[in-house]
Amino acid sequence: MLVPVAALLGVGSLPAGAQPIRYGISPGELELAPASGGTASAVLVVYNKAANTARMRVAVQDLNIRPDGVTDVLEPGKLPWSVARFTRVQPAEFDLEPARQMPVRVVVTVPPNARGGLYGMLVVTSTPVLQVGAGKGTFVVVTPTLAARLLVAIRGTEVVEGAIVNMLAAPRPRGAGADIRVTFRNKGNVHLHTRGEIELLDASGQRIGKLPLPEAVVLPASVREFKISWEKSLGPGTYTVRAVIDYGADVLVSGELTFAYRGP
User: Fold this and answer.
1) Average pLDDT of the chain?
2) What CATH number is attached to the domain comprising 187?
């Protein structure tokens, strides 16, 4: 994930030193499962495909995921599930030459009383880069920022529980499909990976079709709202939406909702 932060410097021709942003990290998500009181580690690879040597810095910040799936990167230690104070990165700062990559060791050591899940973002920033601005003849300096999610489940303490807690469906005017919303709540103490689908049934119970739900990560005590657009036209009648979600438990969760389209 690349998030440039820009500050306008001036107007004029683009300096000869202007360059495209060609930094990256891999993977975009690290999952660790230390035992309570134990340690686990993984490697984040930072690479430079730009023409110049870059100074890289790696820090751990807090992670929040909104109901619509948007990720927030916050100051470390602000959230109850913050993993920042338990995490070390090595090296935390280094010079990266062109066409080179650097493995960064990420080590998480959790206290003996830790339970459930801890979360954060591994944020990598680099030397500012000259870029073309939005206006004609302008240029900007951006500080490339890349981030990978750090998901830690403390082995043996996980409570895995989830449920579909709300469903809504609204037919569109003139029978042009329907807008559907499915809300899933993580009732446990560790993050969940979800995947699922919805089916649309007619009044006789015959399936008209189905659509996948986006795969998602849902943090503890959080909800994820899935918004689905049913694009196929509907005739007047009664319809049932059936949602099924797999979140890694022994059983799937499901929900149903009936709605009517009365015609134009």
Assistant:
1) 88
2) 2.60.40.2360
